[in-house]
Design brief:
Order of helices and strands: HHHHHHHHEEHHHHHHH
Shape: globular
Number of helices: 15
Distance between the termini: 27 Å
Oligomer: single chain
Largest sheet: 2 strands, antiparallel
Number of strands: 2
Length: 361
């Protein structure tokens, strides 16, 4: 890791060599490239002035908890964006795996239990089974996405749009099982909900749930995969230039399939967390989650031109997005406007990303 003090000194030395025109360009580029961060700081300061409760441990705990609940899907979809693609099925996979978790972890004494007379497993075994099941289900959808993208050279937008629709159909069928007739799935075992959203630690009277720790573990694991494994290096090589990667001996087909499969596994883990966090799962669970994840990745510097991105950037992007949405609640902004703001952020972030790309060319 580079010494930040040394980097600042080097940048300062280069700046002194620039003439007046280049210095103006330097500041303009710096402001535009960091416009989202500058606007966020201004927005946060404005929110604190309007509502000083935003500057509290309670607000901080809310933001951290929301970041942890949305981080796994962003970590998964980030790899797809590195490959110059995307994944529109991500939110529905979260919904499907949340339903799978709910089915496996409903209380045995529930009158309308979907598993019916199936004996209740010990809490630990049931939780492990649910985690493995969600990883398998998510991994299967991810594998299908990766296979069709890699084998038939289809655009990820088309492939994942198709699997999004198919996954939603499966969700609707799952909710009809066992005489459930499309009703929300609830009555989850307390061991499961405590395992996910039980209090891990209290700071200033505000509780942080256990799934914050799980999100940290996922982030560290994905950082290791991206930066310390051959698979991670191959992913960035394929994202930068598939032809060059292939000539260099990289198995492009295998890499694309593995990236999408890993993404699906992360969606599955997110679904496992989401079911317990919400305590009730319905057909709309996971709807539009991929939009937040894509926005967070782009804000965090994962470029749609491919081959560029950092796990730390994704974490920062999720933080920025959740800070904005929590701040909107503290400002009592109409909730219906959040979709407009979310779309504007995605458009603005993508525009800045493309500007950086064109400037480098």
């Amino acid at each position: 890791m580079r010494n930040p003090v040394k980097s600042i000194r080097e940048a300062s030395a280069r700046y002194k060599t620039l003439d007046g025109k280049d210095r103006r360009r330097f500041w303009i580029d710096g402001i535009l490239n960091n416009a989202l961060y500058i606007l966020m700081i201004v927005f946060v300061v404005y929110t604190i002035i309007k509502n000083n409760k935003f500057w509290s441990w309670g607000a901080a705990a809310t933001i951290i908890s929301q970041v942890a609940s949305y981080l796994p899907i962003a970590l998964g979809i980030g790899g797809c964006i590195v490959l110059t693609g995307t994944d529109l099925s991500a939110g529905r996979v979260v919904g499907l795996t949340a339903a799978v978790s709910a089915i496996l972890l409903q209380r045995a004494d529930l009158p309308n239990r979907i598993m019916g007379a199936f004996p209740e497993l010990p809490a630990g075994a049931a939780i492990v089974l649910a985690i493995l099941a969600t990883m398998v289900v998510g991994g299967i959808v991810g594998f299908i996405n990766g296979f069709f993208v890699a084998k038939f050279k289809l655009h990820p937008f088309i492939v994942t749009l198709a699997t999004q629709l198919m996954t939603y159909s499966v969700i609707l069928l799952v909710f009809m099982l066992g005489g459930n007739n499309g009703q929300p799935m609830n009555g989850l075992r307390p061991e499961y909900t405590n395992f996910v959203k039980g209090t891990m630690v209290e700071i200033g009277g505000a509780a942080l749930p256990w799934y914050v720790l799980y999100a940290v573990i996922f982030a560290v694991l994905m950082w290791f995969i991206w930066n310390k494994t051959t698979f991670g290096k191959n992913m960035f090589a394929v994202g930068s230039n598939q032809e060059a990667a292939s000539v260099s001996g990289v198995n492009v087909f295998k890499t694309i399939v593995m990236v999408h499969t890993l993404a699906g596994i992360m969606y599955g883990l997110n679904g496992f967390i989401e079911a317990a966090r919400l305590s009730s799962v319905n057909q709309a669970t996971g709807l539009n989650y991929e939009c937040d994840a894509i926005a967070a990745c782009v804000i965090g510097g994962v470029s749609f031109v491919g081959g560029t991105g950092k796990i730390s950037g994704i974490v920062l992007g999720v933080f920025i997005l959740r800070i904005i949405f929590v701040a909107l609640q503290f400002l009592s902004i109409n909730q219906n406007l959040q979709f407009l703001i979310k779309g504007a952020i995605i458009l603005f972030a993508c525009s800045l990303d493309m500007r950086k790309y064109l400037a480098k060319k």
